[in-house]
Amino acid sequence: LRFDEKVRVVVFKSEVKGVFCAGADLKERAQMDDAEVGHFVKRLRNLMDEIAALPVPTIAAIDGYALGGGLELALACDLRVAASSAKMGLIETTRGLLPGAGGTQRLPRCVGIGLAKELIFTGRQVDGQQAASMGLVNHAVPQNNEGDAAYQRALTLAKEILPQAPFAVKMGKLAINRGMEVDIASGMAIEGMCYAQNIPTRDRQEGMAAFREKRPPRFIGK
After folding, report:
1. Might you report a single GO cellular component term (predicted)?
2. Exactly one of 23, 68, 69, 102 is catalytic; which is it?
3. For the residues 146-168, what does the mean pLDDT come to?
4. In the prediction, which pLDDT does 212 show?
5. Domains of the chain, first to last
């Protein structure tokens, strides 16, 4: 996906009705020794980092339970859409654990430090509507009879992104992600570097031409 230039947006959905991702298999985990657990969680954390580093926008379609590592997967995505009935939570403390695949870092960046601490300390689960009100998800939608309302809304969101200039979107994601980790002056410099990379693109010229000619732009990602 990272190197396929035809890919414009990635949507993560589950094939299991009522469950986005229920997190680690604790029965399997119970069979591991301490070293194996550490290795397993490190690999999981690396996987989430790779998902977060995908150059194109990513959307998690949460149509059911997203618990523990399942919510960490959703947090590794750029955008999240949930069914109102979906249940989300970093529930690790209820099992004698703490989030180990990015949850302690990505949740505070998403909802703020105080709320993230409350959710992690209590292991509380929230539904889609509550998640939307706290900024954990971008949109909450009523579940449909097929059980894929969040996925359908995620597709609609993806289709809003698709017509936009692909390289500009990628640079926008990079500037936001890198800029959020530094002070604003450094962030401005990062934005400037990303903008400079976009200036010589054919899509920028096309965008200007389309505006002058009063027609929709035809972006090619170059």
Report:
1. mitochondrion
2. 69
3. 96
4. 94
5. 10-161 (3.90.226.10), 166-213 (1.10.12.10)
